[in-house]
Amino acid sequence: MKQASRTVHAGRELVARSPLAPDLSPAAVHVYTDLEDYDAVARGERPGHYYGRNSNSNRAMLERAVADLEGGEEGVATASGMAALYVAMLALAPKPVTIVATRELYGGTLALIRQDLEPAGYEANFIDMTDLDAVRRGMDGAGLALVETITNPLCRVPDVEVIAAVARDRGVPLLVDNTFASPILFRPLEVGATAVMHSATKYIGGHSDLIAGVVVGTAEAMSAARARSVRTGSTLGPFEAWLALRGLRTLEVRMRRHSDNAIAVARALQGMPGVARVHHPWLPGSVSHDVAHRLMPEGTGGMLAFDLNGGREAVQRMLSRFQMVRFAASLGGIETTVSYPEITSHRALSPQERAELGVGSGTVRVSVGIEAAEDIVADFAHALSE
Ligand code: PLP
């Protein structure tokens, strides 16, 4: 089946009299009449559910669907993207190791490494993952590698194919945060990553109405991730799983529209007053132009950023003039939103650290939605007009 059809059907097997849309099963616990039967289900030798923290039918459907789309053996759905990252990292590196990670990591991931993993004995080496010499050096002696498919907010695309080959060569497990691309536009396991995770809060859910995460990998790695998720109680609740699967059903069409709209908005922004630079992987000036076209030939999703002359004041002026676009500190929803990294995703960094990453006081991140591209462009044109 093509990815478009899988997106609609993955995770379910319908038989006669099955509901076409999945029932929501909020039960915290299932009843049994036979001790041997309960024992077999609890051992995982027979299908079924017994306690909601361990498993639930809605969560299982979502896990199967994302695993199918990513081309992995198994998935584990968690209460948030951060929980997915945490259980995935500890499944791949249960004992303290050096983590080599992209220096442009999502702020929450950076905080997890600095405030939870480093005090527990892990070491971190943050590098520019678009610099393949730095990648080769960084992998030596590392016990886990972590990369995001599209960086936040400047939308650079590390060559995950080469990074995976280097990691494999050195025996370093590679975890890829594929939140920005989704399994529609890029599938890291196909190019050799060990595991892939998503903040399903973003594109998979797609409607800005749930918090969830999913990690996908081999059955062995996912068994470790699942066990930790169950022990720490970070498993996903049934309603969020049901909503996430409902959102996922339209992921393929949404990602196409997000991608088409984002490149159209990026091109239009280039000519608008006050816009110093636009960051989109497909623009000819992007350092990732060639890599992005090779790894994501169908599009790079809805994310872009731009630098506005005039700093915070100019950004505030634009925000107060928008008629449709909204300021919100998340991404991946059907609606176009902008975020201001200086006080949102990158607020924990010092001005110097932000400057080193290329994030200035005029940097605006845009999550381009699925509205008509003309309307999005018109709203930016109005908000930025002199
Ligand atoms: N990874 C990326 C790239 C993100 O953007 C986010 C959230 O913004 C996360 C992980 C964390 O996801 P969640 O907020 O669902 O825990």
Q: How many individual β-strands?
A: 12
CATH class group of the largest domain: Alpha Beta
Q: How does the major sheet shape up?
A: 7 strands, mixed
Q: Approximately what portion of the residues adopt beta-strand conformation?
A: 5-15%
Estimate percent helicity. Answer: 40-55%
Report how far the terminal alpha carbons are from each other. 50 Å
How would you describe this structure to a colleague?
The protein is of the alpha/beta class and 386 residues long. It folds into two domains: 13-248, Aspartate Aminotransferase, domain 2 (3-Layer(aba) Sandwich), CATH 3.40.640.10; 253-384, Aspartate Aminotransferase, domain 1, CATH 3.90.1150.10. It has helices at 3-9, 35-42, 57-70, 81-92, 107-117, 132-139, 160-170, 182-185, 219-232, 238-248, 251-269, 289-295, 311-321, 351-357, 373-384; strands spanning 74-78, 98-102, 123-127, 144-148, 174-177, 195-199, 213-217, 275-279, 303-308, 326-327, 337-339, 363-367. β5, α8 and β6 (195-199) form a beta-alpha-beta unit. The radius of gyration is 21 Å and the shape is globular. 47% of the residues are buried. The mean pLDDT is 97. The structure holds pyridoxal-5'-phosphate. Residues 80-82, 106, 108, 148, 152, 177, 179, 199, 201, 211, 213 line the site of pyridoxal-5'-phosphate (PLP).
